[in-house]
Amino acid sequence: MNEFNKFERARIIGARALQLSMDAPLLIKKPENEFNPINLARMEFKKNVIPITIKRD
Question: For residue 30, what are the CA distances in angstroms to 6, 14, 42?
Answer without folding.
Answer: 25, 18, 12
